[in-house]
Amino acid sequence: MLARLREDIRCVFERDPAARSTWEVVTCYPGVHALWLHRCAHALWGVGLRWLARSLSHFSRWLTGIEIHPGARIGRRVFIDHGMGVVIGETAEIGDDCTLYHGVTLGGTSWNKGKRHPTVERGVVIGAGAKILGPITIGQGAKIGSNAVVVRDVPPGATAVGVPARIIEPGREQERQEKAETLGFSAYAVTRDASDPIAMAIHGLLDHAVETDRRIAALLKTIERCGVKLEDDLAMADKFDPNYLSKIVD
Predict the structure, then answer these.
(1) What is the pLDDT of residues 195-221, one digit of tens each?
(2) Any bridge partners for residue 166, and if so which?
């Protein structure tokens, strides 16, 4: 029991740079409190004391702002950061080493009995406000973007974003960020949200810029292999105003 408590506290220090002391984690982290109370409620649920389990779960919700049904199954070293507004349904399953941020919902889409909530495998990170609905599986090590609505299985190691969520091509998001940095602006505020046409347009421009740079680099290498000496200014990037692009995405 004490080993599990130490494990919970240690995982907070590993994933939250704001954590300063063990006493602070024990007394001021609602995500930790919610998980500890859930273990008690889940044990009561398992031995058939259903009303008592629901009562303890309800008290935990009042205390922490996090609603976890006592029937939900949660693994080890799970971290709920901030936590306000998190809802985890009865048949939800969360594997070891997962991280959930505030506003996450693991909900159902059916009133039928049986499995109706998501299964989240080991090492998954779920961003703030994400909704994962139905008896789907989020594969090991996957990442769910903030405010995404996921209604289909997500493969292991994949990243899902948007409404409805779709899988980002491997490496594409990293390429966009690297290109944005070379242009001199931050793409931090540009989310892949289907309801934001400006964000979609900027992502399209970044994708085009990455592909254009790749083709130009290949063309220059081919020309050099043919023995043509290039002037230095031919390899320089086009003139670009990063301040303007930063301004329109702020």
Answers:
(1) 555 566 666 676 677 778 778 888 888
(2) 161
